[in-house]
Amino acid sequence: MFYIYCPYCEEHREEEEFHASGEAHIPRPSDPDNCTDAEWGEYLFFRTNPRGLHHELWVHGIGCRKFFNITRDTVSYEIKETYKIGAKPQFTHAEEKV
Amino acid sequence: MTQKNRLASGGRIDHQRPLNFTYNGKALTGFHGDTVASALLANGVDIVGRSFKYSRPRGIMAAGAEEPNALLQLGATEATQTPNVRATQQDLFEGLVASSTNGWPSPENDAMGFVGKVGARFMPPGFYYKTFMFPQSMWGTYEKFIRKAAGFGRSSLESDVDVYDNINQHADVLIVGAGPAGLSAALAAAKSGARIILADEQSEMGGSLLDSPALIDGQPADEWAVSAIEELSSFDNVMLLSRSTVNGYHDHNFLTIHERCTDHVSDCAVNGQIRQRMHRVRAKWVVLATGSHERPLVFGNNDIPGVMLASAVSTYIRRYAVAPGNKLVLMTTNDNAYQAAFDWADAGHEVVAIVDTRANPSGACVEAAKSRGLKVIIGSAVIEAKGDKRVNGVLIAGIDEVGEKVTGSVEPYDCDILASSGGWSPAIHLSCHTGSRPVWSDEVIGFVPGETVQKQLSAGAINGSFSLESCLKEGTEQGLIAIRNAGFDIEDRSAPKTAPVNEDRAMALFHIPHTKSTSRGPKQFVDFQNDVTASAIELATREGFESIEHVKRYTAMGFGTDQGKTGNINGMAIAAKSLNKSIPETGTTIFRPNYTPVTFGAITGRNVGELFDPERYTAIHRWHVEQGALFEDVGQWKRPWYYPKAGESIQDTLNRECTATRESVGILDASTLGKIDIQGKDAREFLGRVYTNAWAKLAIGKCRYGLMCGEDGMVFDDGVTACLGENHFLMTTTTGGAARVLSWLEIYHQTEWPEMEVYFNSVTDHWSTATISGPNARKVLAKLTDDIELDAESFKFMDWHTGTVAGVPARVFRISFTGELSYEINVSANYGLAVWEKIMEAGSEFNITPYGTESMHVLRAEKGFIIVGQDTDGSVHPHDINHGWAVVDSKPFSFIGKRGMKRADCVRPNRKQLVGLKTKVPDAVIPEGAQAVNDFEQPVPMDMLGHVTSSYYSANLGRSIAMGMIKSGLSRIGETVYYPLADGRVIEAEICSPVFYDPKGERQRV
Ligand SMILES: [Zn+2]
Questions:
Q1: Where is each GCVT N-terminal domain found (chain B) (predicted)?
Q2: What is the value of ipTM here, to two decimals?
Q3: Hey, are the CB atoms on A28 and B752 less than 8 Å from each other?
Q4: Which of B292, B338, B571, B746 is most buried, taking the most CB atoms under 10 A from its CB?
Q5: What percent of chain A has pLDDT over 70?
Q6: What is the CATH number of the domain that holds A22?
């Protein structure tokens, strides 16, 4: 069970208070109507599923109800950082993605 | 029965406090301080069960958590039945009732025993699957017999009477194990003031110190342990947990401790005490001082009762004053095990021989044995044990230096107990739980913790540092490191002192050679609990299983409740040798939680019965109960399902409720509908983005139905939203979808459109909602309000007004889910029940009739209104359900779902569409879920057109009504489809409009 630092509450809380909402940094296309089916399908259905560092969207559901991002190692489950929506991650290892 | 194996004095038991207990119905006596295992051994009980596969008699082999055989059923009553209790870990108490769990009719005389003797050769690994799975129809027969004969106990048929507990703990340092390393670590760390938990699985802390002959700081080891614990208990910041197994080491230093609070006291806890408690610990740093488990050697008939681990023999003598036999043969690969022979001799019993597998052992213990006059046979091994239900002799032979071949002649010796030691395996289980891969050490002859992935340290035997001196030293060091890592200052401290012991190297030997090949020789067991033999492992490798993980799955090695604590390394060694590889090349051993079995009670704690899941009640709930309503679970809500009167069938009730509503007035508790208060200057624009229809022009005082879709264009919620002010709306959602919708709004606001000024707040519980519906609804409401104009002009359909109802401030929404004239009366939840009762009073002259969710379903289906989640399933978009009227593509912003419902698959012809279904036989009700076909005589697999989503008998229409999906259904109105049912009937139905009642919608607008 994870121990997660909420960047809004500014403290560690138990995973039970949080909920994972999939991969982070997947913005909604700004002009959906002009997306091809392939582009829309990419946005809707395709995720990187990396071995290693993964940026994830989480919500402090039983807490401040804020969404924020986590950089997590999918092998060790270590949480490298948590950061607010709009901020950039400090840890990125594109080469670890497969 | 006398305790024939009990020594007259000594041990850590109280010889003055006898305890009575029964085993398999026999009355026996033990002493306070005994485990069930030590008491059984004291009483000369040799056989504690039959083996899983071959039904061979099995006895107690170990003294701790690694015991594979002695799994007993405990419990004096049905309600207190507890399966799988390890006799070596269960303290004896007065009145304890234990029985063996396998062996039928009894473990001494077992009906399956012949299988082990006669059928042994014919039961290779995979036997059950290879044999009994075919023919499959017979499996049920085989299974019944096999399970009865080979079971590991049963659970109670009654509810557990005990109370279990969960507790959350935050520790700076958690130390696992209170042996020499753990105690030293705790002593080193205690003065820091940090929050320290020291947990130990045994009833008495001290671990190996409790049966060690060594001196620490000039004190006997066991006395030193007692004073160390005394010192530790004087610190308020140190929590000492005995009988507490750290059973799992999870992510981010989260560990679970299974504490048996009163298991050692009585059959069930008394005076409101807790039976067991699960500590859920978040620790800053963890020190694993979990020690090690002795490995038995693998040789012929090594499972006969009376064959034990060497250290267990010492433990039973020194801690429990039990010498389980008379004539001992000891076989060892190492110096450490000699102690068992010394203890045996000190207990006044005969040591037949110490058989040392090493060619030239030179440690201090060999000299000590000789000076005691004990016979030491070197370069030799016990290749086979003799005996049936108890060892009565052994065959000893010389072996070569690497332990692969028998070289000398085979000599028989008489004995009635055989102790063996193949060295010690570090107890790395918890370290493995974290995902840390253990590494093999030739020095240690075992796996030790590898690179750690958590804030974890380890000390003592878990690292392969087996000597007492190194345990005390590492414990002290690691305790100091842990406390400093956790952010505390502490002075250095030197380790407790003990004299170093001159030990010779141990021999890396696991499988003793025999004069015959493994497959031809007597059975040589590796995993006792799952009856896995050396020849089975060799066979598995011959059959092509090369990875140890595959070998384990094929043979079931390590899959018992002991998780292969005694067998895994031996099994790997045998597989490695058979594959001509080294042990690390064969793989590594991975242990998973839990270290020892955990009861469901401890896991679930207080969350049982009423507290299993939260239940949500509306403010009017008590009234529904008093009216005899039956309830339906909708999410966590308890909603009235229907209100039967005496003598009514469910259909009678529904007919009455539905008819009353259409003919006069009905009332529904609609409080559970999700309500989200939305405010902010961008609230209106936001609604336009998340709903498929238009919101720009909804005036204050008006309500509108909205459909919500996902980005894939599929319907996921619906409801009515009211405009309360220019920047203020009240959204309603489905009862089950409320939380999901709120989260949906938040995620889009926070992650996609944070620039929008809009705020969401769940107000579901703030309001109580009574919906009155039917031609007399206006008359009822008129009696309760004098400040709301109710005439059709002042208060139109889809309007809402504030005012006073029954003297209480209210919001009244004129919206309808029945198609009748309806008012949804919302008042502060605190007034909900009072207002409801006033409405009932006012409506009595109109025979106002409460109806539940079932009648609500019928009434809305008569009108063709959908229920999201029933008539939709996540694969249908608004056009599929003929709700194109609720989709406004011309909105400037590309609302959620717009692009999705234009994907090629969403606009293809031949999609399933929601239609009405009228059965040819009027009172035939098609079962929901039934599949439509065009040709019911088509051979299977038939072409299926879609399923029935809603289907009821409608009393108002005097016939059945249904809605369902049909491929291209909207263009097939008037055509016939068939519903072939599982019982052979075929229901014929005509495709029609889903609006069965008042198709022009006039009744709700009156
Ligand atoms: Zn928070």
A1: 620-887
A2: 0.96
A3: yes
A4: B571
A5: 95
A6: 3.30.2270.10
Determine the pLDDT at residue B141. Answer: 56
Contact B848, B664 (CB under 8 A): yes
B2: confidence class by pLDDT, cuts 50, 70, 90: confident
Look at B743 and A28 and tell me if their CB atoms are within 8 Å.
Answer: no
- Give strand pairing partners of A48: none
Residue type (1 letter), B531: D
Closest CB to A67: pick one of B711, B712, B747: B747
The answer to whether A35 faces chain B, any CB pair under 8 Å, is: yes
Asked if A21 reaches chain B (Cβ–Cβ under 8 Å), the answer is: yes
How many separate domains does chain A show? 1
- Is A43 within 8 Å of B711 when comparing Cβ atoms? yes
Asked whether residue A69 is assigned to any structural domain, the reply reads: yes
Tens digit of each residue's pLDDT (9 = 90 or more) over B424-476: 999 999 999 999 999 999 999 999 999 999 999 999 999 999 999 999 999 99
* Residue A57 structural domain: 3-29+36-84
The pLDDT, as a whole number, for residue A91 is 94
From chain A, pick out residues whose CB is under 8 angstroms from the CB of B451.
Answer: none
A57 in contact with B, Cβ within 8 Å: yes
**Strand intervals (E) in B376-488:** 376-378, 380-387, 391-399, 406-414, 417-421, 424-426, 439-441, 446-448, 456-458
What pLDDT shows up at residue B530?
86
Is residue A90 a part of any domain in this protein? no
What does the pLDDT look like over B275-301, one tens digit per residue?
Answer: 999 999 999 999 999 999 999 999 999
Measured distance CA(B764)–CA(B736) in Å, rounded: 12
Confidence of residue B52 (pLDDT cuts 50, 70, 90): confident
Q: What domains can you pick out in chain B, each with its CATH number?
A: 1-156 (3.10.20.440), 164-292+426-485 (3.50.50.60), 296-422 (3.50.50.60), 519-598 (1.10.10.1100), 614-891 (3.30.1360.120), 908-1005 (2.40.30.110)
Of B878, B817, B864, B824, nearest in space to B963 by CA: B864
CA distances (Å), B561 to each of B66, B155, B526, in order?
A: 10, 15, 15
Q: Chain B contact for A1, CB < 8 A?
A: yes
Spell out the residues 6+ positions from residue B673 whose beta carbon is closer than 8 angstroms to its own: B719, B732, B733, B734, B735, B738, B764, B769
Binary contact (B904, A37; C-beta < 8 A)? yes
- Write out the two tokens for B94: 């007065």
- Measured CA to CA, the distance from residue B476 to residue B473 in angstroms comes to 5
What average pLDDT does the segment B335-343 reach?
97
Q: Per CB distance under 8 Å, which residues of B are interface residues toward A?
A: 168, 250-254, 282, 435, 453, 711-712, 743, 746-747, 750-752, 754, 894, 898-900, 903-904
Q: Report the pLDDT value the prediction gives residue A88, as an integer from 0 to 100.
A: 95
